[in-house]
Amino acid sequence: MLPSFQIQAIAQQLKSAQDQHQPLAPPSLTQAHFDIPSAYAVAQLIHEARIAEGLLPLGRKLGLTNLAHWPQHGVAAPVWAHVYDRSVLHLPSGSARFSLSGLLQPKIEPEIALHLCKVPAPGFDAAAILACVDYIAPAFELVQTHYPNWQFSLADSVANQCMHGALLIGPTVAVAKLGPHAVDALRGFSMALSCDSQLREFGGPANVLGSPLEVVARLVDLLASTHDSSHALCVGEWISTGTLTTAQPALAGQHWKAEFQGVALPSLQLDFIA
After folding, report:
1. 3-state SS assignment for residue 226
2. In degrees to the nearest 10, what's the CA dihedral of 194, 97, 246, 82?
3. Element at 126 (helix H, strand E)
4. Which end of the chain is more exposed for a tag (fewer CB within 10 A), N or C?
5. Dihedral (CA of 190, 252, 60, 12) sign
């Protein structure tokens, strides 16, 4: 892990790039030992600065939720970042227009978001996690990067809020309405992502550790392993559980739609404007 003065310098540079919507060279290019612990330390400093500015944390976003990608990064857990009221939008109608202004090199990711009514404990299985959730919703996350040409290390991503740009949460569905086999449904559903009425990709639980519930379970275990109570989940948080497909470039004028089968979630539509 880098010394504190280097972590503070990186946090200041990265926060400035975020605030000014400006590109920035990845820290790993100049800091050979910029690792995941260093990246979380940078992210924590930026998080504390955001809180001081008056932003309200609304939940977490998860990244690297596809097990197939873990060996190449040398990790055994997903990565996570805070999300705030400034970038989380609710779309109760299931359809909206969204401006890409201010986002750098944006991409779109279809996801499932879970709302906590209880705080899950380490070691919980999928059914126990579900008992801590009162609402579930389809979501689109807009990811972005301040690093040129999407070239960066995993540590660079973690430091930069795991590439979070915006989280658009669709119509909420009470967990009770998913039926008695909700755990199985969240392991077996499929999702079709289309752009301008053309199918782009099918996705499903294989891309999110086998189930969105497993993603939350891994997050709980990961946060507990840090032994830092400031990282603990809270009642009322939304957890965006990772992309169900590959990230797709987002451009003004596009119309995107995510449709679910095998789980009682409504479709979600989004029109991008400049």
Report:
1. coil
2. -150
3. helix 126-130
4. C
5. positive
Q: pLDDT tens digits for 1-29?
A: 999 999 999 999 999 999 999 999 999 99
The DSSP-derived string for 132-189 is TEEEEEEEEEEE--SSGGG---HHHHHHTGGGEEEEEE---EEGGGG-TTHHHHHHH-
Q: Give this prediction's pTM.
A: 0.96
Contact 84, 166 (CB under 8 A): no
End-to-end CA distance of the chain: 40
Angle between helices 4-20 and 36-52 (to 10 degrees): 60
Calculate the alpha carbon distances from 90 to 82, 85, 98, 138, 238 in Å.
17, 10, 12, 11, 11
H/E element, 10: helix 4-20
Q: What are φ and ψ of residue 6, in 5° steps?
A: -75, -40
C-alpha angle 237/242/245, rounded to 5°?
A: 150
**How confident is the model over 102-156, as pLDDT tens digits?**
999 999 999 999 999 999 999 999 999 999 999 999 999 999 999 999 999 999 9
Q: Pick from 37, 2, 10: which is nearest to 227 by CA?
A: 37
What is the SS3 assignment for 14? helix
Task: Yes or no: say if 36 and 154 are a contact pair by the CB < 8 Å rule.
Answer: yes
